[in-house]
Amino acid sequence: HYDCPQRPIGYYSGTPYGNVDIVPIEADSFANHRLLVACGYNTANSTDTQKFSEFVKNGGTLIIGWPQLSTTTERTKVVNLDHEYIIDGGFNFVKDTVDGNSVTVCDNIDYDSVLLYTDNGRPLVTVKDNVYFINAREYADNPAVDRAYRKALEIATADCIAKQNIFAVGDDRVQFSIYENADGTKNIYFM
Fold first, then answer.
1. What is the pLDDT of residue 189?
2. Which of 1, 11, 59, 172 is the most exposed place for a label (fewest CB within 10 A)?
3. pLDDT at 51 > cutoff 80
4. pTM for the full model?
5. Which residues pair with 95 in a beta bridge?
């Protein structure tokens, strides 16, 4: 989870993306967060997908890929990327590459836009309804998938920050100045 920029208790600061929390899938709610990144192994179930759906419905942004939608629990199948998914759809997975790194992508998914393509022009990172989807069967340790997550994170974080309501809290000892820039943006300086 990359928190932009409000944070609950327990966070890591100083990352290029702001404060970072590790939130377990078992958390009661994701409501205190603006951006969730699901990149590790888990076995998808209807409770998880419902929580993700509610999170996105309530304005949250989600970065997720095929492995996080897997219902497969047998280790041998997981390691071999022989997944069954919680969603139906007759998906057609094909081998491809990204910068020469092997990756398996679905070539018949639904999306609104594409942020990153494979070497053969297939969608690798897609966006639909505040969901950045990493269209790869492999996990984030794969170099192509790592690049996909980084691209999605870069864009989603910038969008999240742009939507952030920014405010300052002070008392009568705080002074400020507002400078309007030629491009319409404003800089606020507090002393």
1. 74
2. 172
3. yes
4. 0.76
5. 104
